[in-house]
Amino acid sequence: MEFLNALVAITNYVIIPATAYGAQLALGALGVTLVYSILRFSNFAHGDTMAFGTGVVILITWGFQAMGISFGPLPTALLALPFGIVVTSALMLGTDKVVYQYYRKVKAAPVVMVMVSVGVMFIMNALTRFLIGVDQINFADGARFVINARQWREMTGMSEPLTLRSTQVITVVTAILVVWALFWFLGRTRTGKSMRAFSDNEDLALLSGIDPNRVVAVTWIITGALATIAGTLYGLDKSFKAFTYFQLLLPIFASAIVGGIGNPVGAIAGGFVISFSEVGLTYAWKKVVTYLIPNWEPDGLVQLLSTDYKYAVSFTILILVLIFKPTGLFKGKIV
Amino acid sequence: MSYLSAANMTGGYGKADILHDCTLTVEKGEIAVIVGPNGAGKSTAMKAVFGMLNLREGRVTLDGSDITALSPQDRVKKGMGFVPQVNNVFPTMSVEENLEMGAFIRNDDFKVTMEQVFTLFPILKDKRRQNAGELSGGQRQQVAVGRALMTQPKLLMLDEPTAGVSPIVMDELFDRIIEVARTGISILMVEQNARQALEIADKGYVLVQGENKYTDTGKALLADPDVRRTFLGG
Amino acid sequence: MSTSRQADSAAGGRLRAPLFFALMAALIVLEGMTSGWNSALGILNMGLLSAIMALGVNMQWGYAGLFNAGAMGFVALGGLAPVLISMPPTQGAFKAGGFGILAAFAVAAIAVLGAVWLYRNLRGKLRGLAVTGVLIVGFFAYRWLFDPAVEVIEAINPSAAGNLGGLGLPTLVSWPVGALLAACAAWLVGKIALGLRSDYLAIATLGIAEIVVAVLKNEQWLDRGVLNVNGIPRPWPVPYEIDLQNSHAFVAKMQAWGIDPTLGSTITVKLAFLLLFVIVIFALIWLTEMSLRSPWGRMMRAIRDNEVSAAAMGKNVTRRHLQIFVLGSAVIGLAGAMMISLDGQMTPSSYNPLRYTFIVLVMVIVGGSGSNWGSILGGVLIWYVWVKAGDWGPDIMALLASPFPAGPFKEHMIDSAAHMRMLVMGIILLGVLRFSPRGLLPEK
Ligand SMILES: Nc1ncnc2c1ncn2[C@@H]1O[C@H](COP(=O)(O)OP(=O)(O)O)[C@@H](O)[C@H]1O
Ligand SMILES: [Mg+2]
Prior knowledge:
A: ABC transporter involved in vitamin B12 uptake, BtuC, 2 strands, about 0% strand, binds magnesium ion
């Protein structure tokens, strides 16, 4: 029984939140890794793109709510999501036309592209602020729980509570659908394959008559979509705050690099490695320890790291990977 | 007028010219071979013919029409195929996908062409689901040639197709190339193994420092004592 | 490349730099005449500090093409120096917990070194187990020593102290120490991330910056965390306003000049800081220009202009990059320490990556990558624009919003004016990168 209680506690406080967070990171890292493999630079504007996309979704959600449109037990934001994707992807395409295209033409060094993406980051940041401000916003509506603590107790009779929030389920389900669609696209469609070809060997792709402008355009559209979805899911699960999204850049980059930057499977694996390490290391294990070791009450919280240092976890894993395996767990593109 | 004529090409990558008044021609259904020492500009000449280099002077015509200003992609559409010396496959894509990408500009059904490539290189059929990056050097070259054949080119350009493969595989590859030429495809090829290449060549070019040093039929070049001494090792 | 550079600088003319600096001076004077000299000198002082940060970033980006996305971390780390060096020690804190903390750090260091040693000297399965074991045991030993020590220190007079305090040394001493702290952190990061793909350094520095600030916010025993450290002593010879106002000689002199003594005292203090900053800047420029002309500097630029051929010539590119990265970060740390002694307080929550990392990059790019005088100009100019965009934003927005009827939309527009500066910075950065990639004062 005690063992079961420990298991429930771990599921409730570690496995469920880390899975949801990992799915959000994975979607973010997929966006970063896609830009990296096609356009060959680390996009520092990605966090702010996520913030922008989510801002648009929130505004549209409010619009729907004002019109009395709802999505039943699901959050209205899911209805607004497609519109947010369209707006964000359009902005990405516009940014490419106005900003990035020129640097591709002059074959700028990757590090210059990173600098350019910092400029884009400023603009995105400003747009998000104009759009929706800097405050924390909760925009989740609909049913809050799939299983709440009372239901759990009635169902199992266990004293240790377990809750499953609907946003967590929505996050995971959406992420699975999106990843499935993305892999289907990259693996089965002509356009998707041409993107992989372009990522593999740009010169040969050109020789084969693959249109680089089309590849790049599709990449930005997908990146906009991934950023908006990742941002919206994160915002539904936790809350929206523009600055938090900028800070997400670190765990997202860490996920992409840990998995092997440029490798989509790696991005997903990396997302979960980072999320489980972060949640696991900052969780106070006291309860679990008390269940598992009878007759012993630890005096501390048995928390390895304060949650204030959660970004240190991403950083440390990033550093370890850079030291021991710079190409990442799954072989990424050249270091 | 020759089927392909690249006349008086002069140019390079930056300020300094690599090619100096270099001329290459290939007739219909003929095998033309470029040989020469390392760094002579053989690859550069191939790139120039394929439009991957800005020429300061010179003219390239294919089947009578001037293609000097066309992009490489447009030259592919005109019926040229190119197998670069290095990085000539998509390493994380399967053999089949590599061939599919070769046919990217085609809007018709390319199944038949793919079967033809598989008939030419049977090993590729067995490995069709394997990633090109995991294949051996010889197999990878076959993928590279197969990819270029997917557009059904009338002129196939090969830059050192036998680089880094074992002698047995090399003979095999030469046989395949002759087979391709017999179907009426013109071939322009750069080769390190000069003697063997000139044996199968209808026409040979010896390139030195970006200039045509000797131009003749393959047989005549093999017989020429100067060429033998300086380029064929006696 | 080299010929076009010379042609450009000839075309720009010798007057280019003096002209831009005159423009900058005119802007400051204008500010002084319209908003008062306190405000003008305030902008100038902060601008000069930003210019020093820009100098450091320019060494990395301009000389070597290294992207430091974590200047904030080095600024913050440098800022820790005045707290640790020039604040008075907290009575009894060191005795109560100082040794515990030192012992904890020693244990941590031994564990890490031991793990590294085991990693190097063992093979196979045993290695993984041994390294993990040492690290885990080390971690728990560290926490066992560290936690109680922190608890006692933070219990000492928590409303005013609760930290270890400093060494009580002169503030000027803390400036090079700030540089040293930043240099140490830079060495660690650079050692790991340099030599890999160029943007990995950017990502690693982004991370270290977040972590440094997290440490400063949360480790109360060190710097009181979000409770802030106030009353950090001023560097010699900057006086305190109150002392000046109480000095008869000073008051008499001000009155003789027809200046209000209170105003006079604040301006005198700012001028004293200004003097110190200018001395530091000239020293830094002299040093950097000297080193750039030395064989070392020529090699640095050769590497930047063509990494591949420099490596082919047998230059150890990664080692040179590490040197310049550490030096540049030291300069950024120095600026961080100077800034804390100007402010007189350490407020960890005020470190914001946009302000201390990304704006500094804008300064470097606008001034001209690789150009030291450019960084100075860019530093002051962009700081001026940043401050002014905050002031003017609402006015401009009010003008733009005037045709709209009063209501939530208009309110929203006017409220969002405060964010105008982000947009301005983005547009400036992208505009310069695109249309004048060599900046206002191009490298010679
Ligand atoms: N991408 C390039 N950029 C600049 N110079 C090049 C490039 N590729 C080759 N070269 C130079 O052009 C010359 C000819 O090279 P190449 O055509 O590859 O010779 P080959 O194929 O005959 O061995 C060499 O001096 C080489 O250094
Ligand atoms: Mg070659």
